[in-house]
């Protein structure tokens, strides 16, 4: 998930901090220190993620567009000038534009706002923005909630007491509320110093930037993996107790399905699955320790030489055109598949389905999927020419069952004409004639539309009189019979108007040929 | 808590009193002129639907759309009211489909215009509707069971849609009062009952319908709260298509639906099969499907749909799919749809196109199939070399018959036979000295020799089979066959094997012993006896081979910085390589050409002790001589 760092470079950020020792620090320096730590952490654990840097005062500027080059970001931190006053709204609007231009509205994005809690004065101050929040028109909408899924983290270069002495904290809290509660405010514990800034950014890293490590399992085959970006907990609001669900760190493959059968299913999120060499002792990589990267590289090099299950799995899925169904938790599934990056490169990816026993109706209940060898006969046929999917629903939907709807006159007219057309081709069309006739009869009875039955009966009788001399003699018999049957049904008398009753073709001496077909 | 919102339970109450038999006064031409007709025929007079027919078909349409988009968890209870209430179905999921409702409606039939209007009333139906809302649905029951002591948190809300012909506004108020009172009474009853639930919220939607051309005696009224439990709204609608439109609007409001129109779908013309024209099809679905569209700001809202002024529709242009079923596309959402005009030709063309794939039904079994799948994966991966160069047997076609059945949970006698055949076949291959697909990657030269290749192959095969012997006694039989048939490895190998085998046998004995122990103590003596027998056998074996596996080989005392040992002819076991033959010859020849070093002559195992004189001089242990020298 991409990150936008939004750095306050207003004059108030240059306020000095009294630090033990001679060197003079400004709040800005503390912020740079914290961000350096964040960038170093990301360079190590979030190599693939894009980050952008925006600075703002009364204006805003995109210092570094989305990049994976953390050195550039780091350098930009040391090239920031000081400007005038804080004007948060325009900066947030800028963030909206930057993110939407690069990622659209569907990709979740984290916004890290670094400020000292002085939220500006007059027009454009956060106080002013919030005060006028309810009087906005659609065109001057406040940028929160962000139009993309987001988390807004506010890193305050101030401690709680300082923020509480003004209404800054309340304003910032309202900001989070406006983002539908998506986000968090961090403040410095204790006096403002490098150590406490470090611990504040450490908390942010714990909350938002801890890598997700898991063990991918398939029977006895396993691999340590990092799932990237980190899968976020999901809330099912259909439930009575909507508690966020997190995925297991044991990802167990339960089986394999053809891509054609799973057919581009809807997913909550997509993640890269990267095999990792877990350095068991070195798991706790302390902040700011860069010497570790060398060790890690060599560990990765060694790991690259050891056969890895991820490689086997990725290659197999690609060759077979299949996906692996993976269990993420109780009644929660996902799929692993090979995703082509370019013509030459592809990756092992994992997508999460919506939690529940039946996330994809065309596969039925996940727990009911089993090994092919358990089926009495191979559901894919001997030469793989059929498939058991999609599953037929127990009740067909209206569009799959030829329902009768006469709300528009055209619906009724079409049905009557079908009968008429077949009536003219009797006895060849005896079967279809009666099929359509019975469909009309059933609907008319259900809707209590008995006049229609009478009308169609009259019509059939008239058709009988219009039969040409060349007509088959059976046609007249069938028309008369059908008309008479509709007439009795139109009385509504229970013995003739039973819904389940079907009008059967009349058995005549001529109907030998037609009865054969029935 | 969305699941138990008002739309979980919908009760339809449709008036079946004599006045509903009245015509809606909207004519339908049903005898349309078709081409090639004999001229001069006067079409039959148009007919018109009754108020009842209009009400029923509109409510069926409401249900059709609802069932299409929510096949589960959204339930309808259908009640018709005349001299009493007729409840046509229940809340159970099996009762929730159009066919059931249509059959039940046919059984009721149209209202009898000659019935006594004094005995008939919509009130019977409304009372029954409140009763129905108190009845627990299977979903509510399930949720309550799961929540146990928190069962009261399961909500009970519902909606009553009442279609009637009211006499006046005060008549409508009377109906509302009646519903409110009934709810009050039934909630009291439900409070003391386990299988009834109190109604927390009820939405009453009263639809007054009247023949086209008449003045309405009832005025529209937006939703109004009558009590904390009951809200009510009144719609005064002309019968015929107006009523149908109203219910279509309502179903969209009640179930959060939105409309999408697929435009420009090419379809073959009915009359001229070789021409094609473009059509539009309007679909309804949950409005969540549009959320991302609206967010992106790129709204495709293409104006109002043809039907009414109420709703907006998002237009999408049809794109004939390139069917490439082996590609996965990123998909963020899939939504159930229902065509607005279900049996119009364009709609059915589209749905048939999308549905034309063959479909199957699966039969479930008692065991959870997914658990069986996991179990199968476990078995298949017990022995699974990760890379091709790590395996011999999985590169051999000849092993396939065995490898494919040995992973099974249970084997048939035929399977065992096939495994045995496979093993015999391999023995045969070895006898004929057939080459094996041993990987030579990473080894210099041609790789291991043929007999070594076979040894590797047999070892690997044994590993595979051993991984499965616990599955069944038949798997055990395959191992026995394999062990008996496999090529005899060189002596040393043989000894190790024997040791291992014996350990295993003992293990097994112990295992079987353990199995019997709890219930059959007399088995213990049997086991001891067999152990003793085994011991005797081993003794005999040891005599034959001299070197008993019980006495381990002397530990290798060779120092780590060992000099290259000269392989001597006596030492070399098994066939010799050309290189060793050659170097032996050269070495013997060379040794004759010079006087042998004293050290080598006095050496033990080709190793001579250096600085022996120091030991003699100091009278110290050689190992300490460094220290001693310094002293």
Secondary structure topology:
The complex is a heterodimer of chains A (518) and B (631).
Chain A: E1 3-8, E2 16-17, E3 25-26, H1 27-45, E4 51-56, E5 60-67, H2 70-78, H3 88-103, E6 109-115, H4 126-131, E7 150-159, H5 160-165, H6 168-178, E8 183-188, H7 194-208, E9 212-218, E10 221-228, E11 250-258, H8 259-262, E12 269-275, H9 292-305, H10 309-320, E13 322-329, E14 332-340, E15 346-352, H11 409-423, H12 430-446, H13 450-465, H14 473-490, H15 512-517
Parallel strand pairs in A: 1-4, 1-6, 6-7, 7-8, 9-11
Antiparallel strand pairs in A: 2-3, 4-5, 9-10, 10-12, 11-13, 12-15, 13-14, 14-15
Helix pairs in contact in A: 1-2, 1-7, 11-12, 12-14, 13-14
Chain B: E1 9-15, E2 23-28, E3 47-50, H1 51-69, E4 75-81, E5 85-87, H2 98-108, H3 123-134, H4 138-147, E6 157-164, H5 169-191, E7 201-210, E8 221-225, E9 230-238, H6 241-254, E10 257-268, E11 276-286, H7 291-295, E12 301-304, E13 312-317, E14 337-339, H8 345-355, H9 369-380, H10 400-406, H11 413-431, H12 450-466, H13 473-485, H14 491-516, H15 522-545, H16 578-592, H17 598-602, H18 612-618, H19 625-630
Parallel strand pairs in B: 1-4, 1-6, 6-7, 7-9, 10-13
Antiparallel strand pairs in B: 2-3, 4-5, 8-9, 10-11, 11-14, 12-13
Helix pairs in contact in B: 1-2, 1-6, 3-5, 10-11, 11-13, 12-13, 14-15
GO biological process, one term (chain A): snRNA 3'-end processing
GO molecular function (chain A): metal ion binding
Domain VWFA (chain A): 3-117
């Amino acid at each position: 998930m991409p990150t936008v760092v939004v750095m306050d470079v207003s004059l108030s950020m240059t306020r000095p901090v009294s630090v033990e020792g001679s060197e003079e620090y400004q709040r800005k320096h503390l912020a740079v220190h914290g961000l350096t730590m964040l960038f170093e952490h990301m360079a190590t654990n979030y190599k693939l993620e894009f980050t952008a840097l925006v600075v703002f005062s009364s204006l805003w500027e995109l210092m570094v567009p989305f990049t994976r080059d953390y050195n550039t970001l780091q350098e930009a931190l040391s090239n920031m000038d000081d400007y005038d006053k804080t004007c948060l709204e325009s900066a947030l609007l800028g963030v909206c534009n930057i993110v939407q231009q690069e990622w659209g509205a569907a990709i979740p994005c984290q916004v890290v706002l670094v400020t000292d809690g002085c939220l500006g004065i007059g027009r454009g101050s956060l106080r002013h923005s919030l005060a006028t929040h309810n009087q906005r028109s659609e065109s001057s909408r406040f940028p929160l909630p962000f139009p993309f899924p987001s988390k807004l983290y506010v890193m305050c270069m101030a401690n709680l007491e300082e923020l509480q002495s003004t209404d800054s904290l309340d304003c910032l809290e309202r900001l989070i509320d406006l983002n539908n509660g998506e986000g968090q405010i961090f403040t410095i514990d204790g006096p403002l110093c490098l150590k406490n800034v470090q611990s504040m950014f450490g908390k942010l890293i714990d909350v938002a930037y801890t890598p997700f490590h898991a063990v991918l399992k398939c029977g006895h085959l396993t691999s340590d993996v990092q799932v990237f970006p980190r899968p976020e907990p999901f809330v099912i609001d259909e439930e009575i107790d909507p508690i966020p669900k997190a995925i297991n760190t044991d990802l167990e493959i339960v089986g394999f399905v053809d891509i054609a059968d799973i057919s581009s299913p809807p997913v909550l999120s997509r993640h890269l699955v990267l095999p990792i060499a877990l350095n068991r002792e070195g798991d706790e990589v302390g902040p700011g320790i860069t010497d570790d990267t060398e060790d890690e590289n060599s560990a990765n090099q060694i790991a690259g030489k050891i056969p890895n299950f991820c490689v086997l799995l990725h290659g197999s899925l690609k060759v077979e055109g299949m996906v692996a169904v993976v269990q993420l938790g109780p009644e929660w599934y996902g799929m692993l598949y090979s995703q082509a990056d370019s013509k030459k490169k592809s990756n092992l990816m994992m997508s999460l389905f919506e939690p529940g026993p039946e996330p994809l109706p065309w596969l039925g209940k996940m727990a009911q999927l089993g090994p092919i060898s358990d089926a009495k006969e191979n559901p894919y046929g001997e030469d793989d020419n059929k498939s058991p999917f999609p599953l037929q629903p127990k009740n067909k939907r209206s569009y799959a069952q030829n329902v009768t709807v006469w709300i528009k006159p055209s619906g009724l007219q079409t049905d009557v004409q079908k009968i008429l057309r077949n009536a003219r081709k009797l006895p060849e069309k005896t079967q279809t004639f009666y099929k359509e006739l019975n469909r009309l009869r059933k609907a008319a009875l259900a809707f209590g539309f008995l006049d229609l039955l009478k009308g169609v009966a009259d019509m059939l009788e008239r058709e009988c009189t219009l039969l040409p001399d060349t007509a088959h003699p059976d046609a007249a018999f069938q028309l008369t019979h059908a008309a008479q049957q509709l007439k009795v049904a139109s009385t509504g008398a229970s013995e003739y108007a039973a819904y389940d009753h079907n009008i059967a073709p009349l058995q005549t001496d001529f109907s030998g040929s037609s009865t054969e077909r029935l | 808590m969305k699941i138990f919102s008002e739309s979980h339970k919908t009760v339809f109450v449709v008036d079946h009193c004599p006045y509903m038999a009245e015509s809606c006064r909207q004519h339908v031409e049903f005898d349309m002129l078709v081409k090639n007709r004999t001229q001069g025929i006067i079409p039959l007079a148009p007919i018109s639907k009754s108020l009842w027919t209009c009400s029923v078909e509109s409510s069926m349409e409401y249900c059709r759309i609802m069932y299409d988009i929510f096949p589960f968890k959204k339930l309808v209870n259908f009640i018709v009211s005349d001299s009493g209430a007729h409840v046509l179905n229940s809340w159970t999921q099996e009762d929730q489909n159009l066919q059931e409702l249509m059959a039940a409606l046919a059984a009721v039939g149209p209202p009898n215009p000659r019935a006594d209007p004094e005995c008939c009333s919509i009130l019977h139906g409304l009372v029954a509707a409140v009763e129905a809302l108190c009845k627990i649905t299977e979903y509510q029951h399930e949720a309550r069971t799961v929540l146990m002591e928190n069962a009261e948190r399961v909500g009970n809300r519902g909606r009553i849609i009442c279609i009637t012909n009211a006499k006046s506004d005060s008549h409508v108020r009377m109906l509302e009062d009646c519903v409110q009172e009934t709810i009050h009474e039934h909630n009291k009853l439900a409070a003391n009952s386990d299988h009834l639930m109190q109604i927390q919220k009820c939405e009453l939607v009263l639809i007054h319908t009247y023949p086209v051309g008449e003045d309405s005696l009832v005025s529209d009224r937006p939703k109004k709260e009558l009590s904390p439990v009951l809200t009510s709204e009144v719609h005064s609608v002309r019968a015929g298509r107006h009523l149908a439109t109203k219910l279509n609007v309502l179903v969209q409001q009640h179930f959060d639906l939105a409309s999408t129109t697929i435009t420009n779908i090419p379809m073959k013309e009915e009359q001229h099969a070789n021409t094609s024209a473009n059509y539009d099809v309007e679909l309804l679905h949950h409005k969540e499907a549009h959320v991302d569209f609206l967010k992106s700001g790129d709204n495709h809202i293409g104006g109002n749909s043809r039907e009414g002024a109420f709703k907006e529709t998002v237009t999408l242009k049809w794109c004939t799919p390139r069917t490439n079923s082996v590609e996965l596309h990123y998909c963020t959402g899939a939504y159930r749809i229902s065509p607005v005009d279900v049996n119009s030709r364009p709609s059915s063309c589209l749905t048939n196109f999308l549905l034309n794939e063959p479909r199957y039904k699966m039969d479930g079994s008692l065991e959870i199939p997914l658990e069986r799948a996991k179990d199968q994966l476990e078995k298949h991966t017990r022995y699974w070399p990760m890379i091709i160069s790590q395996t011999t047997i999985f590169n051999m076609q000849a092993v396939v018959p065995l490898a494919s059945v040995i992973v099974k949970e249970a084997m048939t006698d035929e399977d065992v036979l096939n495994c045995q055949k496979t093993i015999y076949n391999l023995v045969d291959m070895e006898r004929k000295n057939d080459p094996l697909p041993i990987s030579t990657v990473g080894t210099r030269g041609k790789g291991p020799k043929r007999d070594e290749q076979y040894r590797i192959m047999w070892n690997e095969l044994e590993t595979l089979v051993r991984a499965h012997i616990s599955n069944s006694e038949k798997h055990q039989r395959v191992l026995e066959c394999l062990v008996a048939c496999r090529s005899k490895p060189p002596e040393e190998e043989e000894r190790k094997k024997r040791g291992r085998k014996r350990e295993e046998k003992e293990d097994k004995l112990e295992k079987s012993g353990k199995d019997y122990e709890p219930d059959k103590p007399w088995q213990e003596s049997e086991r001891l006896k067999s152990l003793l027998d085994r011991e005797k056998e081993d003794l005999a074996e040891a005599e034959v081979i001299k070197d008993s596996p019980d006495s381990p080989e002397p530990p290798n005392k060779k120092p780590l910085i060992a000099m290259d040992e000269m392989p001597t002819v006596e030492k070399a076991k098994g066939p010799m390589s050309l290189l060793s033959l050659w170097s032996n010859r050269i070495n013997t020849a060379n040794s004759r050409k010079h006087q042998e070093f004293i050290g080598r002559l006095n050496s033990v195992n080709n190793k001579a002790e250096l600085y022996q004189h120091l030991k003699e001089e100091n009278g110290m242990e050689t190992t300490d001589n460094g220290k001693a020298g310094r002293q």
